[in-house]
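Module 6 notes. Inverse folding takes a fixed backbone as the condition and produces residue identities as the prediction. Think of it as a translation problem where the source language is geometry and the target language is the twenty amino acids. Below is one complete input and output pair. Work through it position by position during the lab.
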C-alpha cells in the first residue's frame, strides 16, 4: 500500500473546514479585519447562535480563526493575513460565478465590493488592481518575478512617511501578489499593501461603508489618488 503523501492529511483537514457553506461564509465575513462576536456572525449568516458557536470552535481549533473573550462576549477574527490571502485566492478560483444579485440592496453591495474593498488589511477590487498597475507602471513595484518593491519604490514610500526599515526588518514579505476574486488579476498584498491601505484610510481618502467590507473613495481621495499614483479620473473609475 502506497503511504500517504506528506501534507495530504493536513490539506484534507483544511479543505474539510471550508467545505461547509456556513463556515465558509463566516470566514469571508471576517475578511474585513474586524473582530466579530458570535452573535453578530450568527445574524450575518442567518443561522442559530448555537450552530455558529460549534462552527467557530472548529475554525479556531483548525487555526483559521483566533478568539478572545471580553466579559461574556466571544470575539473572533482571522488568524492573520495569510488566512485572508488563502481565502481570496480560493474564491478567485471558484467557479462558476455566483448568480446575479436580485435586489437593489444586493446589487449595490455587490457593486461596492467589486469596485473597492479590503482583503483583510490591504486594498482589493477594481481600485486595488488599478493602483497596483499604477505602481508597476511608475516603477514602485517590479512584477517580473512575483511582486517586489524597487529601490525607487522604497524612496517613494519613504516620502510618504512609511518606516520602510521596519517593514524590511519584519517577518512579513514586503510585497506579495494576491489574486483578486472579482478582477481575476493580482493586487498588492504584503506589508506594503497593508501600510498603504492604512494610510489611505487615515488620510480620509477611503472610508469604510457601514455594514460592508467595501470602501468608498471620498472627493478629496479622488484628487489625492490621481496625483499620488499618476492616474486620471477615468482610470480611477466609478
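Target side of the pair, the amino acids:
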Amino acid at each position: 500500500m502506497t503511504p500517504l503523501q506528506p501534507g495530504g492529511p493536513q490539506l484534507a483537514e483544511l479543505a474539510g473546514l471550508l467545505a461547509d457553506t456556513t463556515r465558509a461564509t463566516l470566514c469571508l465575513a471576517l475578511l474585513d479585519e474586524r473582530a466579530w462576536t458570535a452573535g453578530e456572525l450568527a445574524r450575518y449568516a442567518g443561522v442559530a447562535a448555537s450552530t455558529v458557536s460549534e462552527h467557530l470552535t472548529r475554525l479556531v481549533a483548525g487555526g483559521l480563526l483566533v478568539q478572545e473573550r471580553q466579559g461574556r462576549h466571544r470575539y473572533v477574527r482571522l488568524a492573520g493575513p495569510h488566512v485572508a490571502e488563502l481565502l481570496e485566492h480560493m474564491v478567485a478560483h471558484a467557479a462558476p460565478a455566483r448568480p446575479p444579485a436580485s435586489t437593489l440592496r444586493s446589487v449595490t453591495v455587490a457593486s461596492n465590493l467589486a469596485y473597492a474593498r479590503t482583503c483583510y488589511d490591504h486594498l482589493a477590487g477594481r481600485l486595488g488592481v488599478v493602483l497596483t498597475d499604477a505602481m508597476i507602471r511608475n516603477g514602485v513595484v517590479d512584477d517580473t518575478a512575483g511582486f517586489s518593491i524597487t529601490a525607487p519604490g522604497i524612496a517613494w514610500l519613504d516620502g510618504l512617511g512609511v518606516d520602510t526599515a521596519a517593514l524590511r526588518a519584519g517577518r512579513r514579505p514586503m510585497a506579495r501578489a494576491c489574486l483578486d476574486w472579482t478582477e481575476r488579476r493580482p493586487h498588492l498584498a504584503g506589508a506594503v499593501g497593508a501600510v498603504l491601505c492604512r494610510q489611505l484610510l487615515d488620510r480620509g481618502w477611503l472610508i469604510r461603508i457601514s455594514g460592508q467590507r467595501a470602501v468608498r473613495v471620498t472627493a478629496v481621495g479622488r484628487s489625492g489618488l490621481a496625483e499620488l499614483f499618476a492616474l486620471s479620473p477615468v482610470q480611477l473609475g466609478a
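Reference fact for the lab report: Residues 147 and 176 are 5 Å apart (CA to CA).
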